[in-house]
Amino acid sequence: MTRVLVVWCPDWPATAAGVDAATPGAAVARGRVEACTAAARAQGVRRGQRLRDAQRRCPELVVRERDTGAEGRLFEAVVAAVAELTPRVEVVRPGLCAIPARGPARFYGGEEALRVLVQDMVVEAGYDCGSGVADGLFAAELAARAGQGGVVVPEGGAAAFLAPYPLSVLDRPELADLLRRLGVATLGAFAALPSGHVAGRFGADGALAHRLARGEEPRPPAPVPGVPDLSVRADLDPPAARAEQVVFAAKRLAGELHEGLAAGGLTCVRLETSVGFADGHVLRRLWRHDGRLSALAVAERVRWQLSAWRSERPVPGTDPDGVEAPPEDEAVWGGVTWLELAPDQLVPDVGRQEGLWGGTAVTDRVARAADRVQALLGHHGITRPVLAGGRGPGERVVRVPVGDLPPAGAPDGPWPGRVGAPAPAAVPPRAASAEVVDAAGGPVVVSARCAVSAPPAALAFGGGTAAVTGWTGPWPADERWWDPARSRRLARFQVVTEDGAAYLLAVEGGRWHVEASYD
Amino acid sequence: MPEAALRGIAAGAPEGSGVPVLPALRALVPGGVLRPGSVVGLTGLGAASLGAALAAGATAPEGEDGPGGWCGVVGLPEFGVLAAAGMGAAPERLLLVDEPGDRWPDVVAALAEAVGLILLRPPERPGAAAVRRLSALARRHGCVLTLTGAFADAWPGTRLRLRLEDVAWHGLGDGHGRLRGRLADVVAEGPGPARRVRLWFPDADGAVAPAETVPALKPVGGPVSAGGPVSAGGPVHTVAGEEIA
């Protein structure tokens, strides 16, 4: 049984979003609380709560949008602090990293001494954390969360340590719910069930959870004898000067790696990414893989690694060694000369299949073309539109970068005030401001009760003026009134001008805009 | 997906034919399809709708449930995805490159290998070298280049030019009604005499239909005169005007 030390930074999404731990704050995504600080928790804010409920319980809540990119980037600082003590740090996910404890514990004088030392290193780096040592990753994570800043669970004591925990820590809500109804409330009670019966009743995933509850490694490292070297490497010549080029290469390499793994029916528990620079410097990092990372997710991790490294490179002219740092814009890291992805801990692939591209398959040729455009313009340079709910024509289209999964199907609720078909053919990303005047030349005003002061007679925008020959409206829309920062109250009009053009206008706060053109 | 199906999608259309157009526009295009590798120009009023219609024709599912082709839209951040979808486009087969900047020739070159139709608005006057390179690439890969915007006319070798004439929007009154469709002549100029069809472009559902199919639009004879019966159209509001106060 491997001894594992886990460093756990509490409420990492909130910390990474820039919320101070002492103030009540929350990181939200899609209107739900994803993480909150201890101060917010004390006031009744919970994970998964709707933002509205959270704000009711805690009116002074600081709300930030969740930023997964920043989470990965900032966590590099924590990993770097831990890596000062022992080089092999495994990032389980941003907010949680693990190191094998046996060797370092012997070196630093015992597991408790190592635990405190690691904790001090991370706290010195400026982040609150807990650290725990136990048999296996699962028990060690709970040990890091236990007590004041974590505990050491003695060897062989994982099962006893886990026994009193509720089933919710398994992070399998359906299983936990079912077991609760069967009268099994704690991990100890679950662990006491015969494993053969658990596997028969709950399948492979249930058996995995059962192994966790018994304090065993979820799946034993199963080295296959005589496995060829599956690591993949790309040499970049000339050295890549831009992160995009490296990420692009990483995406391709990850595809090759996954092909190699799939051919052997294998998956890797961890993935080591190494980036070599022209000056001989090598950046290595381990990422938890578990067969769950797509090629794009691997590329994303390489991007985090690079951007974190760039943020800590010396500012030009301030290098303590007197070596002149390269100028800001060119070859910022001296150029990347090679990139290697190496699978670590190969285990048989028991099958976890996730669609890489979402609903409609993107063909090889289209994917290759999109990759090339992304290499030129960045990941967001080429998008596929997804129709979504909304009132205005611009709101009803979401642009998803090629390769990203489209947003999970939002319910297509009723949208009172939605502009009906036919849809305008030109919807500029930013509405152009316009002037609408009545027959007397005065501005047309819409009152708070949606009364129009006078029929619009002329529309002026973009340097031209045209007489209005037909108009309709106002169609009021009062959107997101619950959120003062994003609430909009506007009234829409359709007008036809003398030159045969038709426009969708919006008046908001007394100002007119051409929201779209029925070109 | 079987290998053969993948090839079919990637090619955009079966070999030897071309990029399909909407049924209502077939009479305008020689042979009823856009010839692979040709260049189409869209100018004037209605260029955005014409672009959306061509994108719809290129990506619309073929036959029973056969997959449609792919369409790239380069340099048109205002491209009306919803309008194209209303005309029959499959949005998931559109690739949008909103801000190609000065890399637009490279973007078009990359897309030309993969998609059947590229809708392009060059952000600058295209240089002769870029025109030669992209035209050659389009011919080699059988991709139709569709030019729009201020520099649409600056592309030599344009085979077909489409524009709208004699347009009239219907459904809007003086303070009531809603836009219900536009009757327009779509004019195609190319080799041979100019062709012209009268179409609902779009009709009340956002689709493109021949002008004879009026029955679906019965309630709207033409612009409703002031003081006439108020059209029942327009968005539905669950709240009264007071809500906005």
Automatic annotation (TrEMBL), chain A:
Keyword DNA damage: yes
Superkingdom per UniProt: Bacteria
Domain (UmuC) ranges: 1-148
Keywords carried by this UniProt record: DNA damage
GO biological process: DNA repair
Matching Pfam families: IMS
InterPro entries from the UniProt entry: DNA/RNA_pol_sf, Rev_trsase/Diguanyl_cyclase, SulA_CellDiv_inhibitor, UmuC
Family according to the record: Belongs to the DNA polymerase type-Y family.
Function comment: Poorly processive, error-prone DNA polymerase involved in untargeted mutagenesis. Copies undamaged DNA at stalled replication forks, which arise in vivo from mismatched or misaligned primer ends. These misaligned primers can be extended by PolIV. Exhibits no 3'-5' exonuclease (proofreading) activity. May be involved in translesional synthesis, in conjunction with the beta clamp from PolIII.
Protein name listed in UniProt: DNA polymerase Y family protein
